[in-house]
Amino acid sequence: MKLTTRRIAFAGILAAVYAALTVATSSFAYGPVQFRIAEALAVFCCFTPAAIPGMVVGCMAANLASFVSAWDFAIGSTATLLACLVTWFMSKALRSEEPLGGQTAAEGTRRRRLAGRRLLLVFLVPLPTILFNAVIVGAEIAWFFDDRAFLTAWCMNGLSVGAGEAAVLYVLGVPLLIWLLKDRRLNRQLCAI
User: Fold this and answer.
1) What is the pLDDT of residues 167-178, one digit of tens each?
2) pTM (2 d.p.)
3) What is the DSSP string of the chain?
């Protein structure tokens, strides 16, 4: 990724919004059951690689306010980095522009299949964020805060973190992604960053 002023500015704004949203909702953004509203911004990774450092830096800044700031700074931000990278690579089909073309029946069928694949991908986009946070952050919480056996604690905390991530991403992230995909002008501007 070539560094441009536009990409740096976008990453900085995204990082600031992520950190501000997380700290502003800190009562339910940290701990075993967490609903980080800012995680909905992960859908921006579908459009531009500049969203990846923005999400990671925002997560680092927000994790400084957590109860285990030094560890959460490193571990939670690693989960965000991995999730954003996988989201960027898996969403190539969402970034591709399908030409409008002619009116033949074969082209219409092809377009319907492509629209079906894109819709499926829209609902798969949150999975990397959900899974990486459930596994990595769930293990972190189990290690530092849970008195039960590690494996049991990891499973329980992973399920609660994953459920919170799924709720945020499917209730806020997917509608945001659908809106960004429908607004062609905004979609093109994001992909150009």
Assistant:
1) 999 999 999 999
2) 0.86
3) ----HHHHHHHHHHHHHHHHHHHHTTTTTSSSS---GGGGGGGGGGT-TTHHHHHHHHHHHHHTTSTTHHHHHHHHHHHHHHHHHHHHHHTHHHHSPPP-----HHHHHHHHHHHHHHHHHHHHTTHHHHHHIIIIIHHHHHHHH--S-HHHHHHHHHHHHHHHHHHHIIIIIHHHHHHHHH-HHHHHHHHH-
